[in-house]
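Here is one chain, start to finish.
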Amino acid sequence: TFTLRQTRWIKGRYQLTVEDVRGGVRFDDAVARCAWGIELHNRADVVHWEGFPDGHVHYVPYRSMLHAEADNLLAAGRCIDADLLALHGFGPRALRLLREGRPARQ
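Its structure:
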């Protein structure tokens, strides 16, 4: 059975790119990290898998979770601002907000 895994996401203050993921760019405002490869199931008969070498880690910047215009609107999981391949370099369980007790815009 084929199901749609991605529908809508926010326009954030920063769009995470597949180049960021592949390069393991470490952001000053990183709030999550992951070592999982890029796994995309965009067709029932095709799976895109791109693994990484041992020691590779990639990060989610906090500003990709912040809406570009709305105050105090924070997205998580598949709703963050990221291009399609970058988004699929993170499993939903990997996206955990590490900063607590602060307004979303900080």
